[in-house]
Amino acid sequence: MGRRSFLQWSAVAGGGVGLAACTGAEEGQTAAQALAPAAPPDRTVWNACLVNCGSRCPLRFEVRDDQITRVLPDDTGDDEIGTQQIRACVRGRSIRQRIYSPERLKTPMRRVGERGAGEWEEITWEEAFDDIADNLRRVLEEYGNEAVFQAYGTGVIGGTIINSYGPYGGAIQRLMNILGGSLTYYGDYSTGCITEAMRVQYGGWTDTNSHDDWKNSELVVIFGNDPIENRMSGGGEVFVTQQTKKKHHTRVIVVDPRLSDTAQQLADEWVAIRPGTDVALIAALAHVMISEDLHDQEFLDSHCVGFDDEHLPEGVPAGSSYRAYVMGEGPDGIAKTPEWASPITGVPVATIVDLARQIGRAAGPVAVMQGWSAQRQQNGENQSRAMFTLAAMTGSIGVPGGGTGSREGAFMLSLAKPFDAIPNPVTTQISHFTWTDAIERGPEMTALNAGVRGADRLSVPIKFIWNYGGNTLVNQHSDINRTTELLRDDSLCEFIVVIENQMTVSSATPTSCCPTCQTPSRWTSSTRGTPAPWVTPSWRTRPSNRSTIAAGSTRSAARSPPGWAWSGSSARAAPRRSGSSTPSRRPARPTPSCRPSRSCGRWASGRWSGRA
Asked: DSSP characters for 321-345?
């Protein structure tokens, strides 16, 4: 689709509301539908929805005169898991409305008033290129490459060349790498705490088994995960979870503060919990399981470090283990009984005891999994680690039907990243959440006080920001008032470039704002009925008869801090109970039949997303 064609159509759409009555629009039709050409399309081309959810659902566009006249879903495959049709959700199916929206930015703009005042002037592309290049050159010469930063953005995270997520490459990061590099970040707004929890407990990012593996589970316990709602697309999890539950009738328990769609559609039992109290609930579950000898002590002895005092690393004082903490033998001296946890969590004592017994007495593998909601708070690492430890206590890590206690994984093919060929010469990184601090007091930030990586400290503050395909500058960051005031002060961050297709809250503060095409616009006129290489559907590679089984890390147990269970994976004999010479009631688990995928269903080019 050409730029001129887009401008013409968006102008028509802008006046469509007033013209709808004159077009013979039927009741319920939008203006765009009423004005759509009635003639048959010239061709139908494949495309995809590459927005933030990362599912990359395929779309088919009916095109006439280089205009998209209708958006159709995938029409291949069947209704079987692994070969199913990947039908896009309403967000993807409505993409035509966004492409031709009258709110689309159409020309580059330059700020003429104070930052945040909303005063702009339209400029030519040549002026925009010159202005951005001159200021980028000035900042590089005055402050160095570490003063340039690409802000967190996941609006086009499903793309490869057009990717907006800096750590995964993309055009802007390639440009900066060619120019000598730039400051980057580690972590992300979606998984900041659980990522660090995985690093210290498993040695790195670890998914759990895929949802279709529930067919091998005796019991599934889900903490704060709602795949039916937030992974509702065909490329997401809704079809797989619904069909697996329907065919195999696996018992599912959902622990969630609200009666979510997943709780309503999949759960045999819903446990309502006060937000942010999962650690207390799991400690009480652990107390019951330990007291009644319902945990897999053999697995904990052979695969974990730090669960009990007998398996603490050398030099760690007694009473520092997780078991000591739970049973009241640690420094606080408080036994984490159901009676202790109930007023904290809001879960009745009887419910806690019953849940612990269901987990501990399950005759087969137990799949403990979590979403990313519980960890999105202060000290959220401990929420995630508690769920990892509960999974270890079941002994179900690394086997079909079990899992690591993390979020679901999936089979996936990684796509090539052609813009990643040139490495970033700047190795310094900051946490994804501390970029405002780097603007305000960059040189004060060190590895010790601010988690700077790749260097002992930042040498300069952030002076130039690229913000492409993201609204994190304001909308998704915390303390919005502080952030807004900080960005308005152009003596701190001197130049901000926003590349967006609509005006957002983050677009109110930049020095320069440049429009960008939406991803379907870039492909429709070039594919000519054939899928572009970067749209080759990875969803067709998912086997119909296999499940992703996440196995634990095999890194040195000495890396694991005391007080938490560390999990590895290897074949083992039938587990035995603590203090018992007889095999446990839980049958021996088979050896994992495959290695885990580091990719989840949301990204085809890296580990999972869902990025906020």
From this structure: SHHHHHBT-STT--B--HHHHHHHH
DSSP per-residue string spanning 488-541 = H-TTTS-EEEEEESB--GGGGS-SEEEE---HHHHHHHHHTTS--GGG--GGGG
Give pLDDT, residue 366.
Answer: 97
Q: CA 122 to CA 127: how far, in whole Å?
A: 10
Q: Cβ(567)–Cβ(388) under 8 Å?
A: yes
Q: What is the mean pLDDT of residues 501-513?
A: 75
- DSSP string for residues in 407-418: -B----PPPP-G
Query: Would you say 294 and 361 are in contact if contact means Cβ atoms under 8 Å apart?
Result: yes
Residue 382 CA to residue 152 CA, distance in Å, equals 25
- Average pLDDT, stretch 597-601? 30
Q: In whole angstroms, how far apart are CA 425 and each of 80, 176, 189, 589, 611?
A: 47, 9, 25, 47, 26
545-574: b (≥16 Cβ within 10 Å) or e:
eebbbbbbbeeebeebebbbbbbbbeebee
Q: Tell me the one-letter amino acid at 238.
A: V
Task: Concatenate the DSSP letters of all residues of 450-488 into one string.
Answer: H--BSSSB-SS---EEEEES--TTTTTSSSHHHHHHHHH
Residues of the chain above pLDDT 90, percent? 53
How far is CA 153 from each of CA 74, 89, 565, rounded to the nearest angstrom?
Answer: 28, 22, 34
> Residue 351, exposed/middle/buried by CB under 10 A (0-12, 13-18, 19+)?
middle
pTM tops 0.85:
no
For 100, other C-beta atoms within 10 Å of its C-beta total 26
**Distance from C-alpha of 591 to C-alpha of 593, rounded to nearest angstrom:** 6
Residue 561, CB half-sphere, CA atoms under 13 Å: how many? 10
- Burial label for 91, CB within 10 Å (0-12, 13-18, 19+), is middle
Tell me the two tokens of residue 140.
């590089």
User: Tokens at residue 180, please?
Assistant: 């000598």
Which three-class secondary structure state does DSSP give residue 543? coil
Quote the crossing angle between the two packed helices 338-345 and 278-291, to the nearest 10°. 160
Residue at token pair 């919005």: 480
Alpha helix locations (H) across 179-328? 192-201, 227-230, 238-248, 261-266, 278-291, 297-303, 322-326
pLDDT score recorded for residue 28: 53
**Cα–Cα distances in angstroms (integers) from residue 557 to residues 306, 311, 438, 566, in the given order:** 9, 10, 34, 7
Q: Do the Cβ atoms of 241 and 208 come closer than 8 Å?
A: no
- CA–CA dist 605, 612 (Å, integer): 17
Rounded Cα gap, residues 194 and 394, in angstroms: 20
Structure tokens at 68: 């998209």
Dig out the tokens for 338 from the structure. Answer: 């159901």
377 close to 531: Cβ distance less than 8 angstroms: no
Residue for token digits 């697995």? 299
pLDDT at 85 over 50: yes
Angle at 187 between CA 184 and CA 191, to 5 degrees: 155
Residue 290: φ, ψ to 5°: -70, -45
